[in-house]
């Protein structure tokens, strides 16, 4: 099976930001790759009891290849432009199916009142190819998940944007729990790994190939 992810990004006038997807039913949308979001409970300053905690949602982060939407998203970040809605459709294509909109998994995520919080371009080279990958993060006022039923979550008042937890953050948090001697052992282990890798060339084979490559 093949998993697909497409983004339909609408400005305040309702116009769609053009992408380069060619899949039927999603033509002209923005083709995406990885995405992530964290949802959890957070403490509220000055509150006690049942009102001391409220739901917190991270930035919505996703990656994509450079396309027609790239400079539009960069300009929106520069100008602080707010988009009315960002609709992500994630689904699995059944092998041998003629209808690409049907699959075992079909999730729709709708972000409302969206602003671009961050934009990053990553590049990698090797003897055979050059890869480019963009990483974008969106802030939003509310989010709607539709997967066999729908649920809407809203950002709490005065919510602060935060990034989804990374593996590095998880490792750092685990390292903080270690004793001083165990931390020293961990540092020495990391140094040994770095020394072993010092003579090896490092190129990124990950990412999304640019169109036409």
UniProtKB/TrEMBL annotation:
UniProt-annotated stretches for the region Disordered: 191-213
Name the record gives this protein: Type VI secretion system tube protein Hcp
SUPFAM superfamilies referenced in this protein's UniProt entry, alphabetically: Hcp1-like (SSF141452)
UniProt organism field: Aquariibacter lacus
Stored Pfam families: T6SS_HCP
